Amino acid sequence: MPDASRRNEQSRRAILDAALGLLAGTGYAKLTIEAIAARAGVGKQTIYRWWPGKGAVILDALAENATAVTLPDTGDIEADLREVVRATVAEFADPRQSATTRALTAETLADDALGDQVRDRLLRPQLVAVRDRLDKAQRAGQIRDGADLDHAVELIFGPIFHRWLLRTGPLTRRYADGLVDHVLAALR
Amino acid sequence: MPDASRRNEQSRRAILDAALGLLAGTGYAKLTIEAIAARAGVGKQTIYRWWPGKGAVILDALAENATAVTLPDTGDIEADLREVVRATVAEFADPRQSATTRALTAETLADDALGDQVRDRLLRPQLVAVRDRLDKAQRAGQIRDGADLDHAVELIFGPIFHRWLLRTGPLTRRYADGLVDHVLAALR
What we know:
The structure is a homodimer of 188-residue chains. With 188 residues, chain A is mainly alpha-helical. Chain A has helices at residues 3-25, 33-40, 44-50, 54-66, 77-93, 95-110, 112-139, 149-166, 173-187.
């Protein structure tokens, strides 16, 4: 890698790391391009050369972070689903992560293009990973042949999202386990 | 009812009717208090005497409209759920209703108090009505004793809401029927 490319890549990573750090520290609402630039040790113009604005930087930072997530595969679909659902519920229950996701969700409701990006880059990889794990379980006979796996994925994430966004009930481990029990009853 | 009360009630209904009419005509984003007042034949100050702003008027208008909805009860939980889910999916698929719900949802993400009102006055009555219908079906032996009805309600509405908000798939009658099949598999 030539020096200029390496420096660019270092700046890009520094910017995304700074964005994630500020997101965790001050939260989405108060985060500015100026603060990201200062923390990353680059000029504002460097950020604006690569991204149109704050939402796009945060989206890239979250998307690169998200690809590191891998799904558990012990061979036991019940154990694996329980782990995934508990972790997902815990993420939505975390005040900081919840605030970021609420802010991003509000922006996607006002901006269809950003909504498509968030869906395709942040959400879809997780949904596809769970669908693939369910597909493997179906081929192993742990899920009935008639079960539709697109419905299955939405039976898992839809209720969590609904409960989180509308604040209709607690997001606890007990809730997560109850949800898994009901989803498995639909799929077995 | 004394004349003043009757006139107040007539004005209140005229304002809510005007709000619903404008919502259907110009949509939530372009709707103004001025336009509601003009259409209802009242002064702006009458509206501001009773409501703090546009969101509150729309919420009242939608909430009064929503209470007129009654749940089907043929005695057959499968037939009744199918009707409810088809109707709900059709509402979310309707561009005008979807735009209103997206605008209101975006506002609730930025305003917790409005979010609580929307949940308790628009959403909760529907969820409770479905839960009551499921409870009756459970007592009639059409739903297994171990099924948790709060989970059941969220298994129905969560996936629809998730698919609608994140635009992950089509909102068709075929989708509605598939969802009902999977939910019933979890509950029987």
